[in-house]
Design a protein that fits this description.
The complex is a heterotetramer of chains A (about 650), B (about 180), C (about 375) and D (about 100). Chain C is mostly helical and about 375 residues long. In chain C, about 65% of the residues lie in helices and about 5% in strands. In chain C, the strands form three sheets. Chain C has a three-stranded antiparallel β-sheet with strand order 5-6-7, with no helix packed on it. The chains are: A mainly alpha (about 650), B mainly alpha (about 180), C mainly alpha (about 375), D mainly alpha (about 100).
């Protein structure tokens, strides 16, 4: 399958070096350098990485299909036959991800300069942001599982640091911890998956974690091991990408600064799980069962999150659930074998979701931090640019034909249908309708209707500065046109991104043109009906939602309370754990066993010391004499040795 | 002839080294130390290490031992009363030293008999400087740093801090203080 | 073999006698010179049978300086204080005088003398590392004063001894730095060789003496040398008005004579060193081994013997000149205070010496490259 | 030439004498002087062995030993001074606050 060449390309190292320098600078000199220099350095670091990525892409395109660029940073672990380098590999998959990470990252960094313009801790913020970019690039570019895992952990760390960025708020800090802990559960799965895979290869005599080598020799792995490893990796993916059952952290992560939500919790980090599954596609293709699990979890999560999003009133929370839902789509695509489509959806999703978050940030900026949609409304005229760009983004996520989301979502649903997952396809279509509903609910509640903004905030209502609106416009253009790189096969220039990715992620069978058109039509109809419903509910007949809510009663409350999942987790996991810690570990094991051990060791040391401290007479000459005796012994041994051996 | 010169300085070195250890008065010990060092430097010159021999005399006799002398004066050390001290320690010490002597002798008596004739320029300043400033340059610079640190440390340790100044009355003490103030100024 | 030994012995004896005699002459010189400077008569006693007076020659005090005083010195009771350390008390004067005298072993007092096939170097002991020897022996010289002061068991003497040793150790640094600068300039540690390299002339008329290369080092060496000999203005160790006579307060007779002799021998030594390092030693301007070569005038061929003798005379003349200079200094300048003395040594001379050394090194490297 | 072993044996003897001084004498200053004797015995041995091997490195070592010895003397004597100031003794066995 892979017939390209691998070319040494040292500039890849530079791609990591730039954000790393940004981190070091911001961390140690940032405060002293001042805001302007920090802004310039941080943005330049990421933009530089983006330009390098473009250069690398140019190099890659010049090579035959399936080629890759590589660079080696250092030799890392050399234990017996196991040799792991910190190596970078820039193939088509990595190229797409790198461009998204650094490109969208650049835009969001730029936006942050404005958004964080008044925060006193800007240097720390940008240090974390650059560190995140660095980690994400490591995750994407790493040529082996272990190096990838470093990036994986790095982004988790940055996510934690940035969620709890305003750490003096106890709730924010708690949410940060929650994200971290939930992620750790997934990471444990990832790590166990690495071990399983490494062991499986090692038992056949292949000591490697390198993607290319593993892919080449994947036939060595039995399907049972592949299933286990695949499920473990997928557990990791559900943690990082916020899928059932480990999605609970993402809605709470919205307390971080909005650019963080845009970059980390919408555009890049949360798609890492999808990327990982795509990267390990060769493994998943071995085990249809795992693929089924991935697809099912994806579709169910998509639907589930979409329903919850219907009833949320916090603008960022709605976006968070929509993110979970969209990533569910990606996993649906990946589970259906359409890794290319999943990656394509990552790209388009990055554009419109970043735009949505930044737009929401712009709205919040204008309203002085207000996140509750019930206190918005009628902002269309006050925030024209935000309004226009948000409209584009909402159309894109609703998958209205022609906008970017349409193409990628269409591809995914088509793949689900073609691979025979009709139920999941149906769920996806329903979710598409829900998407249209809740997204336009958000849009209309925010920009249309009667203004519900608090009176005190009205006079200061203003459009965001250019440094924030320009990123919005760029992202809007990308949301509008970004999908056209992946048209359905045979149309105009065809599926360019799919062809580009094909050597890495493989191909799915497609359906005849007419059937595909029919599938698209169904999905689009669902999406548009959601749109229309939203219009009716929130613009045409504003009283309707309340009545609907009252009518549905318990269902609506369940949706608003997110199906009580947090409470369920609290009851099932958190409380028993606290109880166990408190009673069993603290009062019994810690008090008696561990303290007894520690005290016993201390007592033993004290007793021993009391016995032998008499040696310390404090008289230098006694020490000298002792030393002399030792020297005499050594000398005697040397003498003996030299006499024995001439 | 040569052996005679060696024997003379060897005996001088040993006798005066014994003097260092056995003299009751520190000043006499010190003088014996000077004699030992001079004998050793003469022996070094006899071995062809001319420059190092003279350097030893300059550095040790001309500087280091003088500092010892100052300290002896500063502490106003008189002759030791000669109390027996720890007899056990002395006994074991003497025993250990005897063992050490025996072992060292056992080692060294089997050394090569005659040294080869010294090559031209052996032990000259040129050769020495060549080594120090080329092969051992880093070590040399490190010792210069060491000396600086030692000087600073010595001043810091030996300085009379205001807190522990024992205030004594009397002309001598105040003159001393005046001198210190003047030196500091 | 035996001849060599004899020649060496002869050179040594000549050198020692010359130094000792010169020291004695200096004593007289100082007495009369100080009298001249202070507008008094000075030594004028103990004429033998009044011969001079009968002949109408003014009594210059020659007799009491050269005959009566030594006689008196050596016949006086050798007094050792009761609580003194007798051994060290006796040893100290010799420990003081001996190093100064043996220092002269490496000071060249003339060029080669060729007798038949034998070449005699007019230097007691030719030593490749003469300068190191010089510094080593001067270092030992401290012990004489220090131990003399300590062994007397007298507060004044001890103070004098402490002052003397502190002063000498302090000024030895400046002295060493000055000498090292000269050594770097000429690239040798051999004093005879240093003299030789000061031969010849620039532009045919300016003698290549050390003073031209190292004027600062000359001042440093002269100053430090005077301090080393513990004479005014650096005579704190003996400071009569404060410490009676410093470290030799408790000395009398021959031992005191040895201390005094040390002083004057040191004066001679400083003069000899200054002459050797900075004024060409035995070099006579325009005199080359084959004879005079006067710039712009012509040359005169001379036999080796004449050249050698001229060299020795020139060296003597230079030494006497600097002796005179030191005596002049002694009787003109007031005494330093002790802290001023330390200040001068550590904070002026030492930094100057270091700067001079660094500058010399830079210039040497620049010239070499 | 004098055999090198003579020098080595002499060095050993001087070293042993120095050790004896360190172990037996109680006066810190004298102990210190004995250490200097030991150092210089080692210096002698270094040069003698260097001579036997025809190398100058032994002399360079002596050079470094001297420098270190100078530093050691400066700091050591300063310590003795400080100790004397606070405890009014320089008897090695009376400066034993650091026992037990």
């Amino acid at each position: 399958m892979v017939n390209g060449v691998v070319v040494e390309f040292p500039a890849l190292k530079l791609m990591l070096l730039l954000p790393a320098l940004g981190v070091v600078f911001n961390l140690f000199l940032g405060r002293r350098a001042g805001r302007a220099i920090v802004n310039v350095v941080s943005v330049a670091a990421v933009v530089g990485a983006f330009l390098l990525a473009l250069w690398a892409l140019g190099e890659l395109l010049a090579l035959p299909a399936g080629s890759a660029l590589k660079a080696t940073l250092w030799s890392w672990i050399y234990v017996g036959p196991l040799q792991i380098d910190l190596g970078l590999r820039f193939d088509a998959l990595a190229a797409v991800m790198t461009l998204v990470v650094s490109g969208v990252g650049s835009i969001i960094h730029l936006y942050s300069c404005g958004y964080m313009g008044e925060d006193p801790d800007y240097a720390r913020f940008f240090a974390y942001m650059n560190l995140f970019t660095l980690s994400m690039l490591v995750l994407v570019l790493g040529n082996n599982l272990l190096f990838m895992f470093i990036g994986w952990e790095g982004v988790g760390l940055c996510s934690y640091l940035l969620i709890a960025f305003w750490y003096d708020n106890a709730q924010f800090a708690y949410n940060g911890r929650k994200a971290f802990v939930v992620n750790r559960i997934g990471d444990a799965g990832f790590l166990l998956g690495i071990f399983a895979l490494a062991a499986a290869f090692a038992s056949r005599g292949l000591w490697t974690l390198d993607f290319a080598a593993m892919r080449e020799h994947i036939s060595l792995v039995s399907s049972a091991v592949a299933t286990m490893a695949g499920l473990l990796f997928f557990l990791g993916a559900t943690g990082k990408s916020a899928q059932i059952p480990l999605y609970v952290w993402l809605p709470d992560a919205m307390v971080g600064p909005t650019p963080v939500s845009a970059l980390i919790h919408a555009a890049t980090m949360v798609t890492a799980g999808v990327y990982m599954v795509a990267r390990l596609g060769f493994l998943y293709q071995l085990t249809p069962a795992t693929m089924e699990v991935v697809a099912a979890v994806g579709a169910i999560t998509a639907f589930f999150a979409a329903t919850v999003a219907l009833a949320q009133s916090d603008i960022k929370r709605v976006l968070a659930y929509s993110t979970i839902s969209q990533i569910g789509y990606m996993f649906l695509g990946a589970g259906a074998g359409a890794f290319g489509a999943a990656i394509f959806h990552i790209v388009t999703h990055a554009f419109f979701k970043a735009l949505l978050f930044l737009g929401a940030g712009s709205v919040m900026h204008a309203l002085g931090g207000e996140q509750d949609m019930s206190r918005m409304g009628g902002l269309r005229r006050k925030l024209p640019v935000t309004h226009a760009t948000m409209l584009v983004a909402t159309l894109a996520i609703t998958a209205v034909p022609g906008f970017s989301g349409f193409f990628s979502k269409d591809e995914i649903l088509e793949a689900a249908y073609v691979s025979g997952h009709y139920w999941l396809w149906g769920l996806g279509v329903i979710t598409a309708g829900l998407t249209g509903l809740y997204m336009f609910r958000l849009f209309f509640l925010t920009f249309y209707g009667r203004s519900r903004v608090e009176a005190a905030r009205l006079p200061r209502l203003h459009e965001s500065p250019a440094v924030m609106t320009i990123p919005l416009v760029i992202l809007a253009l990308l949301s509008l046109g970004g999908g056209w790189i992946g048209l359905p096969a045979g149309m105009l220039w065809g599926d360019r991104i799919g062809e580009f990715l094909r050597p890495v992620v493989g191909q799915v069978k497609s359906v005849p043109g007419l059937e595909a058109l029919a599938l698209s039509a169904v999905a689009s109809a669902a999406a548009l009906s959601g749109l229309v419903l939203a219009f009716v509910f929130y613009v045409a007949a504003p009283g309707l939602p309340e009545r609907a809510a009252a009518w549905s009663g318990a269902l609506y409350r369940a949706l608003r309370e997110k199906y009580y999942v947090d409470e369920l987790y609290d009851f099932l996991v958190t409380r028993p754990l606290f109880f166990l810690s408190d009673v069993a570990f603290d009062r019994v094991i810690d008090s008696y066993a561990i303290e007894g051990l520690v005290d016993g060791a201390a007592a033993a040391a004290r007793g021993g010391a009391a016995a032998i401290r008499r040696v310390e007479t404090g008289n230098v000459q006694h020490y000298a004499l002792t030393y002399l005796c030792g020297a005499l012994a050594v000398l005697a041994y040397c003498l003996y040795y030299s006499m024995r051996h001439g | 002839m040569e052996v005679g010169v060696f024997a003379f300085f060897a005996v001088l070195a040993v006798v005066s080294a014994l003097g260092v250890v056995l003299q009751r008065s520190p000043v006499h010990s010190l003088l014996a130390l000077v004699a030992t060092l001079l004998a050793i430097s003469a022996l070094l010159i006899g071995l062809g290490a001319v420059a190092i021999g003279f350097l030893l005399a300059i550095v040790y006799v001309g500087a280091i031992v003088v500092v010892f002398l100052f300290v002896i004066w500063l502490l106003n050390l008189q002759r030791d009363p000669g109390e027996p001290g720890h007899l056990a320690a002395k006994f074991f010490g003497a025993f250990a030293v005897a063992a050490l002597t025996a072992e060292l002798f056992a080692f060294f008596v089997r050394a090569p008999v005659g040294p080869p004739p010294a090559p031209a320029g052996y032990g000259s300043v040129d050769r020495l400087a060549d080594l120090i400033f080329r092969d051992y340059l880093v070590a040399f610079e490190a010792t210069s740093l060491l000396l600086l640190v030692a000087v600073v440390g010595a001043v810091a340790v030996a300085r009379r801090w205001p807190a522990d100044q024992p205030r004594r009355s009397g002309a001598g003490a105040s003159a001393h203080g005046e001198l210190r103030r003047a030196e500091r100024a | 073999m035996l001849t060599d030994l004899l020649i060496d012995a002869a050179k040594a004896i000549v050198a020692v006698l010359l130094v000792l005699n010169l020291a004695t002459v200096l004593l007289w010189f100082e007495r009369k010179g100080s009298a001249l400077i202070q507008d008094r008569v000075g030594a004028n006693r103990a004429a033998i049978f009044g011969i001079g007076r009968r002949l109408g020659v003014p009594n210059l005090g020659v007799t009491n300086t050269f005959v009566a005083d030594p006689l008196k010195m050596f016949t006086k009771e050798d007094f050792v204080p009761d609580q003194a350390d007798r051994f060290l008390h006796t040893l100290a004067p010799f420990l003081s005088l001996f190093p100064v005298l043996v220092t002269f072993a490496v000071v060249p007092f003339g060029d080669r003398l060729i007798v038949g096939s034998r070449v005699i170097d007019l230097q007691v002991c030719q030593l490749d590392v003469g300068v190191l020897y010089l510094l080593a022996v001067l270092g030992i010289g401290i012990y004489g004063a220090a131990l003399g002061g300590w062994a007397s068991n007298n507060r004044w003497a001890l103070l004098g001894g402490v002052r003397a040793s502190a002063q000498m150790i302090s000024y030895e640094l400046a002295m060493g730095l000055a000498i090292i600068a000269v050594v770097m300039t000429f690239g040798t540690l051999d004093l005879q060789e240093i003299c030789r390299r000061q031969g010849g002339a620039w532009f045919g008329w300016l003698p290549k003496w050390g003073i031209i290369y190292q004027p600062l080092a000359f001042l440093l060496l002269l100053t430090a040398g005077i301090a080393e000999s513990k004479r005014i203005p650096f005579d704190m160790p003996e400071g009569e008005s404060e410490l009676i006579a410093g470290y030799f307060t408790e000395y009398s007779g021959g031992k005191q004579a040895a201390f005094m002799l040390t002083d004057f021998a040191e004066v001679v030594l400083v003069s000899a060193l200054v002459a050797t390092f900075f004024f060409g030693g035995w070099q006579v301007p325009y005199l080359y081994p084959e004879g005079f070569r006067l710039p712009g005038i012509g040359s005169v061929l001379l036999p080796n013997l004449v050249v050698a003798v001229l060299g020795v005379l020139a060296f003597g003349l230079k030494v006497v000149f600097f002796c005179w200079l030191q005596i002049l200094v002694r009787w003109t300048l007031p005494r330093f205070r002790y802290d001023q003395l330390m200040y001068l040594g550590w904070k002026i001379l030492l930094p100057l010496g270091l700067i001079n050394l660094a500058a010399t090194a830079v210039v040497i490297v620049a010239v070499a490259s | 030439m004098t055999p090198v072993s003579y020098y080595l044996v002499l060095g050993a003897a001087l070293f042993a004498i120095g050790v004896a001084g360190v172990v037996i004498r109680r006066n810190l200053i004298v102990i210190f002087m004995s250490i200097e004797v030991m150092l210089n015995a080692v210096n002698l041995t270094l040069v003698a062995l260097g001579r036997a091997l025809g190398s100058t490195d032994g002399q360079v070592m002596v050079f470094f030993v001297m420098t270190v010895g100078a530093a050691e003397a400066a700091v050591g004597l300063a310590l003795i001074l400080a100790a004397f100031r606070s405890r009014h003794t320089i008897k090695a066995d009376e400066l034993n606050l650091m026992r037990w």
